[in-house]
Amino acid sequence: MLKFLKKKPATEPAPATQEAPVHDEQRGDAATPPPLARPATRPAMTTPPAAPHAPPGPPADALPDHESVPARRSWRERLSGNGFARGLASLFTRNPVLDDAFLDELETCLITADMGVTGATELIEKLRKRVARREFADAGALLAALRAELVARLEPVQQPLVTAGHTPFVILMVGVNGVGKTTTIGKLAWRLRNEGRGVLLAAGDTFRAAAVEQLQSWGARHAVPVIAQGSGADAASVIFDALQTARARGIDVMIADTAGRLHTQTGLMDELAKIRRVLGKLDPQAPHEVLLVIDGTTGQNAIHQVRQFREAVGVTGLVVTKLDGTAKGGVVFALAREFGLPIRFVGLGETAGDLREFDAAAFVDGLLPTAPAGHA
Q1: What does the DSSP assignment read for 119-165?
Q2: DSSP tag of 359
Q3: Could you tell me which of 289, 288, 292 has the C-alpha nearest to residue 304?
Q4: Are 222 and 198 in contact (CB under 8 A)?
Q5: How far apart are CA 1 and CA 246, in angstroms?
Q6: Closest CA to 162 of 174, 171, 151, 153
């Protein structure tokens, strides 16, 4: 026991909360837990001791090995396995003839990849007219035109998150269960800490039993304080206390987790609306960003989720997760066309560094084959 105390770092994260293994919502498995800290003497910390500011982000070599920043895999490497990329690769790598049959196949590929019938049909009709005018000498030229059309559809929603202008800048994270919301919060906290921002987390998902412990584990892993109460506590009260703490300590960014019950349940939407009202008592402009986390594998159901959450809490940005796995990928185009909401980040893997700022050109290039056969 004495040896353990001697090895403890000189400074600890502000909240002394009990650790729990980090459960990755995006993968459904338990990641390797961080080293256990000294158990808390009380179940939650709603009024942490005052501090002038959260400490600067830890250096990369201070993070666990799997959270250090190695050379990241490219967008193409991350996206090549999803349904959209596989379908397009199958079409173009056989050096197709540019005729109606090929365009019909391409349209089917786009629709089955969750782009949406209307969006896919509009795109194919534009290409069909250009093919009729003999604008494309070969499949390589058509592939280049397809790339330009896809990028043009996504560039308007390529808008990075800017946290300047408010201190603390309050981010409210919303989304249904299982989309990777709490995991995304942990990754975003890591990202902001490494940019030198002071970050504080609010464990507002008091409905799901393991959510508080999960967020506390992310906080301990990245030296980010977490304000939490027990399961079943009033979420608005937890987040209100967290904002008071963030203001007192001069925190740059406060990120609040929320419950993720199904978007068809009006009780959840009422709770989110209450959180907005309560935050407004301290800061009429808070929350300054409402990020809706969308599971990239849910397809067209994502459209219904965005519509419901936007009506309830005024969503200002999207995070699309799990695009490196079985997601078809086309839902990103459907969301851009339907709502035009900024896509702030996308999830391309399990580690903290795999939460990437959305890049329209890189995303499209990751989905398309490099060139048709014979045109490398």
Answers
A1: HHHHHHHHHHHHHHTT--SSHHHHHHHHHHHHHHHHGGG------TT
A2: -
A3: 292
A4: no
A5: 34
A6: 171
Q: Where are the extended beta strands (E) located within 260-373?
A: 289-295, 317-321, 343-347, 355-357
pLDDT, tens digit (0-9, with 9 covering 90-100), for 258-272: 988 755 566 788 888
Nearest CA to 365 out of 88, 158, 127, 93 is that of 88
- CA pair distance 259, 174, nearest whole angstrom: 7
Using alpha carbons, select from 185, 198, 204 the residue that is nearest to residue 258: 204
What per-residue confidence (pLDDT) applies to 127? 96
- Return d(Cα 303, Cα 315) in angstroms, integer: 13
302: tokens are: 């994502």
Looking up tokens 């940005």 gives: 317
The overall longest dimension of the chain from CA atoms, in Å, is: 81
Which residue from 256, 262, 289 is spatially nearest to 275, judged by alpha carbons?
256
Beta bridge partners of 172: 256, 290
Could you tell me if 181 and 175 are in contact, meaning their C-beta atoms sit under 8 angstroms apart? yes
Task: Extract the runs of DSSP E, i.e. beta strands, from the chain.
Answer: 23-24, 29-30, 169-174, 199-202, 226-227, 253-256, 289-295, 317-321, 343-347, 355-357
- Rounded Cα distance between 360 and 92, Å, is 21
Contacting residues for 136 by C-beta, under 8 A, at least 6 apart: 98, 130, 142, 145
Residue 189 sits at the vertex; the CA angle it makes with 187 and 192, to the nearest 5 degrees, is 110
344: its two tokens? 């702030």
- Per residue in 167-206, pLDDT (tens digit) is 999 999 999 988 999 999 999 999 999 999 999 999 999 8
Position 311, amino acid: E
- Mean pLDDT, rounded, for 65-84: 67
Inter-residue contact 160 to 346 (CB < 8 Å): no
Per-residue model confidence (pLDDT) at position 211: 87
| Rounded-to-integer distance, Cα 358 and Cα 161, Å | 10
